[in-house]
Amino acid sequence: MILAKIFFTFFRIGLFAVGGAYSFLPLIQKEVVEKTHWLTKEEFLEILGVVKIFPGAISIKFATYTGYKMAGIPGAVVANVGNLLSPVVLILIATYLYSRYKQTPAVKNAFEMIQLAVFAMIIAVAFQTISLGQVCSIKNMGIVVIAFALFLYSRVHPAFIIIGAGLIGAITPP
Q: Quick check: 49 and 121 in contact, CB under 8 A?
């Protein structure tokens, strides 16, 4: 029973997580924290901090952690299958439909509105993952501004921005 519940929970997450990595976070929080109570909000935020430092898709790391916590290795496998199956099916259908109807005004408008909704959810998650107190110091605000500017206006690879921020954090006092 728990394996089926894990599968369908992550199938739903995969089905509605439009827009990439961070779009999954509000869905994961709603499903595994608020709905199933498999993780506490504190645990969710701790795991979010941990999964950010490892490469790969956030949804896979959350599916692996949550599935393993609830049912061991079979739970991790089932969570990931559910998480990946729905986007695979959707992308196959969407590829067919998009190639046929991409110039239709309704389709263009639908994708623009989806982009805006995903943008809003990503901003909301960003505000949930950090306290404003963390940003208030000059050093921390400097990191935010510099990282933002490097990401937006330079060709510096995001991995180097992350590594640089970590090095600055390691060598400067809190």
A: no
Looking at every residue in the chain, the average pLDDT score rounds to: 88
Domain membership of residue 57 (yes or no) is yes
Would residue 58 count as lying in a domain?
yes
Q: Look at residue 26 in the predicted model and tell me its pLDDT.
A: 83
Total count of domains within the chain: 1
Q: What is the pLDDT of residues 10-44, one digit of tens each?
A: 998 888 876 666 767 888 889 999 999 999 999 99
Identify whether the C-beta of residue 134 lies closer than 8 Å to the C-beta of residue 141: no
Q: Is 27 helix (H, G, I), strand (E, B) or coil?
A: helix
- Sequence-distant (6+) residues with CB within 8 A of 11 are 82, 83, 85, 86
Query: What domain range is 63 assigned to?
Result: 2-104
